[in-house]
Amino acid sequence: MLLEFDLAGNRYRFDGIPPLVETRIARRLTPLMAQAMSTMLKRTSKPGKPLELRPDANVYKFVEGVLNRLGSLSDDDTDVVQREALRGLSRQVGGDWETMWSEAIDGPAFADIDGALMMGLTIRSLGCVVKNWLQHSEDLDAAFNAGLAEILH
Fold first, then answer.
1. Which of 27, 144, 148, 149 has the CA that lies 20 to 30 A from 98?
2. Segments making up each domain of the chain, as ranges
């Protein structure tokens, strides 16, 4: 599950977010995810089929929708999403990895992290979560279908 990336001259590693925290974040971002899916992705009818971009996908419309949704999040919801997303990251310092979030100051552990970089790191962390979800989507489709069949029978 470990994913690494470079941003603003530093190397970061996604260490993971606990599943219950992922669920709390997803609940806060559901309207944004719905907007993204309807704007950018084709609907597929077969479980396990890879996701595809819509041929008429409009990146500007997508970004506009995302920014509108982000702007409507409460300060508390924004804080939860950013705090938990950054807790899932480590930054390479020399040969060691140091956690991105300082519990002592309840903020980023590095002084060079401003609001723009914090938002970029939050997006990358959440992107790692979504990537993990998509990698398991075929298993999830099978489990969902099995659960649905059990309920209906």
1. 27
2. 16-152
